[in-house]
Amino acid sequence: MRVLPSLSLPVLFAAGSDVFSAFNSSEELCQDETAAAQCNDKCAADFAECYGSCADQNCQYECVAEFGRCGPACPCGENCPGGCEGCPSPFCQCTDILNNGEHNYCMHRATAKQDYCVTHCETDTCVLDCSQEFLNEMKQCPCRSECVGGCPCKDSSYECREYAMILDNEHRIEGKMTSVDGEVFERRRYGPRNQMVLDKAFYFEFKEQVFIEIDVSDLELGYDFDQVNGTAVLIENEIGFEDDVIYFCFGHKDTACFEFDGENSVEIVLETSFSHRRGGVGIFQTEVFAVGGVNADGSLNNKAEILGRNGWTTIADFPEVTGISDVAVVSDLKTDKSFILGGHNGDNAVQDIHVFGRNDSTFEFTWIGRLSRRMSQVSSLMFENHILLVGETIERVEIEDDASYGKGYHIRELDPPLQYPVLFATEPDVCLNSCKEFCFAGDLW
User: Where is the signal peptide (predicted)?
Assistant: First the structure.
């Protein structure tokens, strides 16, 4: 066995969480000592596992570097001197465990299983077995012993859910939170705000601000933008643009877009050849594309165009020959794939799923599956490997990793049915005390 040269780290290795006191320059006592200790202990344990599995000195150095980054990011560390206040550490999820939504859902499920198990027992031994099974499952819950820092649970068998918030015009102070698997559906209170309109409003996290665009006139865009006919997409600078911008398209003019950088609007002089009013807008690589729309005479078209440096270029027609409008377009920037879901062909809503991409030098739309039912005028939200659609119903769309197949699964009916609700990812404990408090009351709204 080859013995690696020592990096002279016995003090670091043995000190555990105490070593991180050096990273906290504040002389005040830590206000979140438990979370800080749990985080620091986890840093030390990860370092021990990393260092012990190394086969060369470069690996050891990487472990040391990661160890040095871990502690300052803990509550009361150098990067979080105020403890959990404003600290992104996952260990701060568990400072108020009884108001941690994912913990509560996990515990509720474990308790329900125990109750069912016990009520079917005929012997004391059976009851004890049910209790042991409950203890084993409880330990896997977020913030419990097998998932100390809360979601995501790396050392636990518990799979944390993803959640979305739904806001609509009819019930503007009552949000609906749903888990993507459909198991959780709860009401959370938002607002109030006088004369609030959420008809096809936009939600963006843009330049470290949250925009729920209730009325785009609030932004002082300089254009009379019709939210029902138009669409907005966010382009972030990591995909090639110098600055983050929002493209507002086809709401002020059927064939034109303008950019908004958070302060100023600039119209894109070059226009499309076809109307894309009520069409779909997405992003392919670094370029905006549009598909379908309503013509001036009220008929539909199936034309697709993409905006390059030299203007809009007409590309492959969308396969719906009678034309398409009111589609959902979801762009996956990691894979350079865009998905076109549902829509309306002039006679009926459709339930097809297409993927848009490039085949060598040619753009094309490829049919990959179907939704569980016909859907149009929906809002969409993409998670890691699935898409949530919300309109008259809630639908989860599972997409294969290679985008070769997609299938929709019905989650629930909505009463009343919605058109283009505000939809955004959220955490399960957001507005958890909304019977007493409003979400977003005050400065944000």
Answer: 1-16
More confident residue, 169 or 296: 296
Q: Is the peptide bond before 416 cis (omega within 30 degrees of 0)?
A: yes
Tokens of 419: 């058109």
- End-to-end CA distance of the chain: give it in Å, rounded: 65
Q: Write out the two tokens for 238.
A: 């990591």
d(CA 340, CA 359): 17
Over residues 67-92, the mean pLDDT reads 87
Mean pLDDT taken over the chain: 81
DSSP of 85-146: TT---GGGGGTTGGG-HHHHHHHHHHHHHHHHHHHT--SHHHHHHHHHHHHHHHHTSTTSTT
Asked if the bond preceding 192 is cis, omega within 30° of 0, the reply is yes
For residue 35, give the amino acid letter: A
Give the global pTM. 0.73
Domain limits of the chain? 10-93, 96-160, 163-426
Fold of the CATH domain 163-426: Neuraminidase (2.120.10)
**Could you tell me which of 206, 204, 175 has the C-alpha nearest to residue 189?**
175
Q: Is pLDDT of 14 > 60?
A: no
Rounded to 10 deg, the angle between the 124-139 and 101-119 helix axes is 170
Identify whether the C-beta of residue 149 lies closer than 8 Å to the C-beta of residue 103. no
Residue with token string 């670094």: 286
Mean pLDDT is lowest, of 41-50, 80-89, 393-402, for 80-89
**DSSP helix/strand/coil, 395:** strand
SS3 call for 273: coil
pLDDT digits (tens, 9 = 90+) for 119-165: 999 999 999 999 999 999 999 999 898 988 788 887 788 888 888 98
Is 18 or 295 the better-scoring residue by pLDDT? 295
C-alpha to C-alpha distance for 375 and 396, rounded to whole angstroms? 12
The half-sphere exposure of 386 on its side-chain side, counting CA atoms within 13 A, is 18
Secondary structure letter of residue 175 according to DSSP: E
User: What single string gives the DSSP state of each residue in 328-391?
Assistant: EEEEETTTTEEEEE--B-SSSBEEEEEEEEEETTEEEEEEEEEEEEEE-S-EEEE-SSEEEEES
